[in-house]
Structure formats: C-alpha cells, structure tokens
C-alpha cells in the first residue's frame, strides 16, 4: 500500500510535525510505503495532495485536525480512496464521530496499516453559484458560526476551551436572526420553517467545537442529516441551556427542535456558515447527504 501522509504546518492548531514523523515511521515499520506531503497553505496542500493521488497513492492519511481532514475529504470523496485520520488538531470532531479521537499516533497508524475500512456518509453543501463542498461533522450557522468567527480569531487559549470563552462573549450581543428553512424529510415530504432563530445547525456527525454534542443523535452511516434549530429566548434562559448542550440533553428543551432530513436549505441575511470548523459559504445554501461517499480506515473492534 502506498500512502500519502498529509501534514499542514500552516493549520491554526499546527499539525504536529513530531506526530507526522512518528506516524510515517510506524507505517513504514508495517511495510506501508509512505510519502509525507506538506504545504505552506491550504491551497498548496490541496495541489500536493492531488498530485500524490494522480501518481497512484492507494490511500490518504492526515495528521491534524478537522480543517486539514476536511481538505483531504474534498479530494477523496466519492473516489473509494480510503482516508486515515491521525488526530492532532484543536477539535478533532470528525475523528470523534468515527471513534478515532482518543487514538494516539501509534494506534491511529496501526489502524491504517491494518487495512480495515468502512463507508460513511458525508454532507454536501451546494452554494448559489452551483459550487459544492463536503463536510464530515457539523455545519453551524447563526450564533454558533459567530462563535467560530470569534474563536478562530483568538490566539489564546489553545484547544477546545477557546470555544467556551467565545460562546460566553457572543452571548453579550445575542439576538434572533430571520431564517427561512426548507426541509426534505425521510419520506420525501417537505417542511418550511420561517421566523427568528438563534441558530440552525446541520449534523452529519454529533459534535463540534472540540466535543460539544450539538447533534447528539446524528449518525454518519444512516443516510440522513440531523437539523437542530434554536428559537430565541431570554439570555438568562439560553445561558442556563448551555450545560444541557454540553451534556447533549438540550434537544428536549422547548426552544429547540430537531428534524432528521435528506436535505435542508438554509437562508438568512448576513450569515456565513461554518463546517468542520471553517467557513464554507454565505447563506443561502443547500445541504444534502452524500451516501457512503467516504471510505475510512477504522480500528478492529475491541
């Protein structure tokens, strides 16, 4: 097996070059031919990865977090080329969705070398110009995308705690946003929801922001997306809701509604959506399921 091992030192969290070296050594010890590729920017990394795939890489592995994994997803989605993840970023939410977040470098590399794979869904975002991108975990729009804006601009602290701080700061200017949400339900029926929302979140996976279970029941292998809508309430009530969000028990609160859908169209003025922690497009956008579009390496069952 020939593996292209992508490490992006320009990533915000900095893909750990020590982890990349360790992973490459471990893969080679298993007899896996491993080429380490690294770009100084996301665009350069994409070009290098495309070149490696064109030259005949059998698989792609990523050392890094959700942003670098998302970059690789764009290139391997729908190709059947398997993706291995060695979690080394700030959030690692897609790795968590796949049950890989707690793996150390050795265990993650061993899972790739073991060759065991499974197919999972991706979510596909289509913009008004017809362009599209994929994401693996969660798309945020509204309050939570503003939190991403703030968290991404923060230089300190590192790790998931900066999302917690960003959430509290954004509460100071919290307000409802006029949304139009169009849902295609599993039976093919449609539903339209209009009015002010604090946020509208779409989950292929369960968590974002370094482990916050915003879509606690989402399953990346069920052919559906989970849409979580939060209606406005007083700041104090929403602040009291936060512990339930962190516990994943918020979906039973009256201001929160959840739909399981085939696709969803989100429209709201002045809102940029984030997916896998990075901006993916200005609303309106449509999100649908790309069924079993990604093949991933997975550890053997315990």
From TrEMBL:
Keywords: ATP-binding, Kinase, Lipid biosynthesis, Lipid metabolism, Nucleotide-binding, Phospholipid biosynthesis, Phospholipid metabolism, Transferase
GO MF terms, alphabetically ordered: ATP-dependent diacylglycerol kinase activity
Stored Pfam families: DAGK_cat, YegS_C
SUPFAM superfamilies: NAD kinase/diacylglycerol kinase-like (SSF111331)
Gene3D superfamilies registered for this protein in UniProt: 2.60.200.40, Probable inorganic polyphosphate/atp-NAD kinase, domain 1
EC number, as in UniProt: 2.7.1.107
EC category: transferase
Domain DAGKc: 1-129
Signal sequence region: none
Cofactor(s), by name: Mg(2+)
PANTHER family: LIPID KINASE YEGS, SPHINGOSINE KINASE
Similarity comment: Belongs to the diacylglycerol/lipid kinase family.
Protein name according to UniProt: Diacylglycerol kinase
Organism of provenance: Microbacterium arthrosphaerae
